[in-house]
Amino acid sequence: MLAAERQSHILLRSQALGVVRTRVLAKELGVVEETIRRDLDKLAELGALVRVHGGAAVNDFGHRDLAYEEREVSQQKEKVAIARCAAQAIKVGETILFDASSTCLQMAKLIPPNLRVRVVTYSLPIFEIFKDRKQVDLVLLGGDYESRGRRFGGPLTEEGLLSCRIDRFFFSAKGFDTTKGASEANEEQARLKTVGLIRSSWGALLVDGTKLGSDSSYHFAQTHELSAVFTDELGGEYFERAPLRESRKVTIAD
Q: Which segments in the chain show pLDDT lower than 70?
């Protein structure tokens, strides 16, 4: 296959997925990873893609707030593995705050039906998972509803969150860098996560490797504010090269 044909395939995949991985592209195209890296570097030079850890993304991916449907299908296998790993941290009787991320949605699906917890969220899909569970004390934080993200935000949501006492806060991010911290593409959602961390005794970042080493528009947490990080195999490679000071914070989902 000619370089132009490979690069055309890479562009089509990146436009469909937002982020593409070097390893996956190499398998799809039947070439070694080094060939894909050269293709990605060339496309980045042309301004068609932006290089991220383990692959590349469409130019505005790090700063574009994806719709709910886009987030739900992106890196789904990795998100399920991360969610399964993070769910083990929840203890009976705790008050849990879930953000409106697709990774937390996967995590909510994994909570055992008979587990007695209090769930606080501003995500409509997560609310729908728990609404009929008798063992769950459920709080939906209302406010300005954003249909594109199927979530609430704004001053009323922040005010409601400020009145809550949270044991564990699980959240994702658009980008994370060990120096700059966690960031979001949506200002309202970034503010909510800042408030969530203030009101929580323990906060965990759930992030797949494609978001590591990248930076988005609105920062909401520094590295020292994180109690734990749950990531995938690709994320594990990133943290080997850019470790947190407290290595115990990072858990790699398999």
A: 59-75, 245-248
